[in-house]
Amino acid sequence: MKLHPTVDAVTRRIRERSAPARADYLQRLDAAAARGRGADRMGCANVAHAFAGLPASDKFKVVTERAPNIGIVNAYNDMLSAHTPLGAYPELIKAEARRHGATAQVAGGVPAMCDGVTQGTPGMELSLFSRDVIAMATAVALSHDMFDAALMLGVCDKIVPGLLIGALHFGHLPTVFVPAGPMPSGLSNNEKAKVREQAAQGLVGREALLAAESAAYHAPGTCTFYGTANSNQMLLEAMGLHVPGTAFVAPGGPLREALTREAARTALGITRAQRFAPIGRVVDERAIVNALVALLATGGSTNHLIHWVAVARSAGITIDWDDFAALSDVVPLLSRVYPNGSADVNQFQAAGGTGFVIRELLDAGLMHEDVLTVRTGGLREYTREPALEGEALRWHDAGASKDESIVRPAGRPFSATGGLRLLQGNLGRSVIKVSAIPDDRHVIEAPARVFDSQEALHQAFKAGELERDVVCVVRWQGPQANGMPELHKLTPPLAVLQGKGFKVALVTDGRMSGASGKVPAAIHVLPEAAAGGPLARVCDGDVVRLDAVAGTLDVLLPTGEWEARAAVPMPEVLRAANGAGLGRELFAGMRRQALTAEEGACTWL
């Protein structure tokens, strides 16, 4: 199938704008790859330190037999249900490496926080920047420079982007990502959301709410809604960085173990094959476009309008929200998974999953097929599902959709467009996810109510002050202000107001959770208020128009009056509070250094 002209045009303009940075990146990659093996190149004391903890047989393999050595970077902890299974992976990988005459070492661990634990708390203000900490920790792990390949063990929101950013700074290494899979389905996401809305109204108490949440989040594995964590997995499949079909296989079973072992074999295959496919070559502008297309086709997390900009930058590639918007105009929505539907990711997997979606996009000319992946068969391999036949892994085509209420072919999509819109106007530049919003809510015009914190909005809701058409403006939530926390806790009260028939929208320089989408939300507004952006000029009562159809976001005031209005400074009491307690002092430099959301909120450029 011929490549769609818009996909081709977006890819070309990314390639052209990125040419100098990409050339410099590849030059550094090639220089690193041209060096000798670490065990041959390093001093004897360095080598002795590196392998002092290994069994004697492994030392012999690496030093004398010159066997490949895999570096494992592990985000394991048992605070994250999705990462709990990763504790057992290193021994599996080491055993598989030994079976093939190689070795593996845990090069290092990286921090991994659970946004579900920190939502609505001060700890959430560390969340976005934890991505860059993870990237730096990955670099520290790989800086031992004794590895012929790497395996990245991680799943959740900031963890995968952080691992990927870190790995791309060691772009000369063949690298495979290794996930853990989703937990079994529990209380449905729709039922969980209903109980949250009842709790917001005071109709049920803490005991009932905790029981519902515990029935939804109840076992090892990834949360089952299609938020940032599961969007990560879809994007890694689309970029060819997994063993094909690995994303949503349940943890703990024989198939998951076989796929984990296959990840070690895959990494070793790249190091020993004539084919040179280090991660810095795999992740080129075509792979980035494939990831964006997969995100749009599945109604994935808006957080990736930040994270994948940062990922691309790490490979010398520059993308922006115009690229997302152009692709969204032509990429059809092929899946409905909560919050864009009622199904969870286990049902998505059963209906056809990643293999079905990638095949439909390839066949429609919406993805680049001529790309490098960690496998020898290219991206077409990622249209197949894994299964065990006896003890052997086999792959078969995903086939037709098993449930067209969950996944549909490209010729009969849920929507002709991907559901992300770029908004621009006198309130700045912003994005909105419309794939989960009722059609009659795509345009909201109402008086503004301005809040300096999400807590203030909750208080106004509880006091009954928002029982009307209203655009809630929540400012001082950008990277420089407080680290850009997710504002997922605002979804239940705003959804309650919307359910009562009021026209409601959120406008903020902060983020929403990857599980949000029911209420119209113009998010990531830039310039952010703390940098003197337009949200710092909005006053209570100003009429705001959010128009996702026309792609505009404006305060409806005469131009002269609006331009003459001074921006208010961030309240000092708020600035002081944002920087103190629960370790936030340690991130002050990151807040000062952070780029805009459209630049990936990077703190390392």
UniProtKB/TrEMBL annotation:
One of its GO terms (molecular function) is 4 iron, 4 sulfur cluster binding. The keyword Nucleotidyltransferase does not apply. GO terms for biological process: D-gluconate metabolic process; Entner-Doudoroff pathway through 6-phosphogluconate. Binds 1 [4Fe-4S] cluster. [4Fe-4S] cluster binds at C156, C223. Residues 406-601 form the Dihydroxy-acid/6-phosphogluconate dehydratase C-terminal domain. It catalyses: 6-phospho-D-gluconate = 2-dehydro-3-deoxy-6-phospho-D-gluconate + H2O. PROSITE patterns: ILVD_EDD_1, ILVD_EDD_2. It comes from the Bacteria. Catalyzes the dehydration of 6-phospho-D-gluconate to 2-dehydro-3-deoxy-6-phospho-D-gluconate. Belongs to the IlvD/Edd family. PANTHER family: D-XYLONATE DEHYDRATASE, PHOSPHOGLUCONATE DEHYDRATASE. This is Phosphogluconate dehydratase. It comes from Variovorax terrae. The gene is edd.
